[in-house]
Amino acid sequence: MIKNIKIFPNNNSRSIKLAKLIKEQFLRNGFNVVNDNYELGIAVGGDGSFLRMVKDNNFNSDIYYIGVNSGHLGFLQELKESDINLFIHELINNKYKVEEIGIQETVVNHDRETSHFYSLNDIVVRSQDLKIVKLNISFDKDYLETFAGDGVLIATSTGSTAYNTSLGGSIVYNTFKSLQITPIAPMSSSSYRSLISSVIIPDKMVIKIEPVNNNNLIIQIDGENKIYNNTESIETKIDKKQIKCMRLSHYNFPQKINDKLLK
Question: Which domains are assigned to the chain?
Answer without folding.
Answer: 4-96+248-262 (3.40.50.10330), 104-240 (2.60.200.30)
